[in-house]
Amino acid sequence: MARVLVTGGSGFLGSLLITKLLEDGHAVTSIDRLPSRNSHPNLRAIVGDIRDRPLLDKLLTGSGHDVVFHCAALLAHGSIPPGELWSANVEGTRTLAAAVTTAGIRSLIYISSNCLWGRGFSRPVHEDDPPEPCEVYGASKWEGEKILADHAGDFTTTVLRSPTIMDEGRLGLLSILFEFIADGRRVWVVGDGSNRYQFIAARDLIAAMLLAWQRRTAGVFGIGSDDVGTMRDSYAYVIANAGSPSRIGSLPKAPTVLAMRVAHALRVSPLGPYHARMIASDFVFDTTRIKTELGWRPTLTNREMLLCAYRYYAANRSEIATRRGVSDHSRSADMGVIRILKWVS
Fold first, then answer.
1. Does position 10 have pLDDT exceeding 90, yes or no?
2. Alpha helix (H) ranges present in the chain?
3. 289 within a domain of the structure (yes/no)
4. Cα–Cα dist 335/28, whole Å
5. N or C: which end of the chain has fewer CB within 10 A?
6. How far apart are the first and last CA of the chain?
7. Mapping DSSP to helix (H, G, I), strand (E, B) and coil, where does residue 131 land?
8. How many domains does the chain have?
9. Within this chain, do residues 157 and 121 fall inside the same structural domain, yes or no?
């Protein structure tokens, strides 16, 4: 049994990771600004902020923690001021790294993002492609990577650059798509829907996190599914398997992107600059490095993941609508002006 710290332990990924760690017999300390959804004799769940250095020192110094899984991050959609997001994600990582160094913990696994880029690629994205974030969330994750690189002599850091994480219970912006399908409304792609945008199954990401810890492998790794089909094909697969009467329609790219930017500027849409730039683009990580160095393999395709998440939504829709005080990925996003599109679909 190892002693493990998970930041963001009340979030979507953090909760699933903690469940797996407890099943494997480890003792887990969780820190999050929200109460934990997990309960177990081997779990110590702390409601707190990773920017609180005295709290981190109290939790880590002399505690015998073997590894830190750093999953905590504020997201760009919603009403969070950019300055608060930057402080939580960047200064939180800086404070955590300093506390881990002082405590002598040997390993830290950091969940980064494909939001390090605000454009699509016509080829698989490699670890040595220079990041080009277009909004504060992506910039904050890139800054977090640089902070941890500065601690290379203090502990082993594994950075996993993750695309959208999928599993049962994944909601957030996806709940907008799911509501359209559940209500039999037309589902829209931008352009012809031939773009390929990679997902990662939560169980596959967690498997990579555990491999990185077990092997203490330092480095930066892109991660994601194999067999990344088009967005049109993925939507069609979910619609067919859900028995929904929804059909797929196409929106012209240039006017749609312009409308998204205007809606974001007016604060009437949950979709930000990143979504406007990527909604009809290709983005797929080259996963050669993580497969070679960690021996990792994905188990689910994009469309299988999306159907799994949809079925959870359909089965729990009424309860989901009442959720409060949970992470952004564990509740439905506010449609804002997108609801007008639903009315005419």
1. yes
2. 12-23, 53-60, 82-86, 92-103, 136-149, 174-182, 202-215, 231-242, 253-265, 273-278, 288-294, 302-315, 317-320, 338-343
3. no
4. 36
5. N
6. 53
7. coil
8. 2
9. yes
- Amino acid identity, residue 233? D
Does this model's pTM top 0.85? My answer is yes
Q: What angle do CA 44, 332, 281 make, to 5 degrees?
A: 105
**Bridge partners, 307 (sequence order):** none
Distance in angstroms (rounded) separating the CA atoms of residues 79 and 132: 24
Residue 293 inside a domain? The answer is no
Over residues 113-135, the pLDDT tens digits come to: 999 999 999 999 999 999 999 99
Other Cβ atoms less than 10 A from the Cβ of 178: the count is: 24
Which residues, at least 6 apart from 130, have a Cβ–Cβ distance to it below 8 Å? none
Six-digit token pair at 103? 């405590």
Last residue of a domain, one of 206, 222, 238: 222
Looking at the structure, tell me whether residues 121 and 252 fall in a common domain: no
Query: Which pLDDT tens digit goes with each residue over 191-245?
Result: 999 999 999 999 999 999 999 999 999 999 999 999 899 999 999 999 999 999 9
> Contact at 8 Å (CB) between 193 and 235?
yes
Assigned domain for 262 exists: yes
Segment 118-121 long-range contacts (CB within 8 Å, at least 24 positions apart): 118/273, 118/274, 118/277, 118/278, 119/277, 119/278, 119/281, 120/195, 120/277, 120/278, 120/281, 120/282, 120/283, 121/281, 121/282, 121/283, 121/284
Residue type, 32: D
Same domain, yes or no: 11 and 133? yes
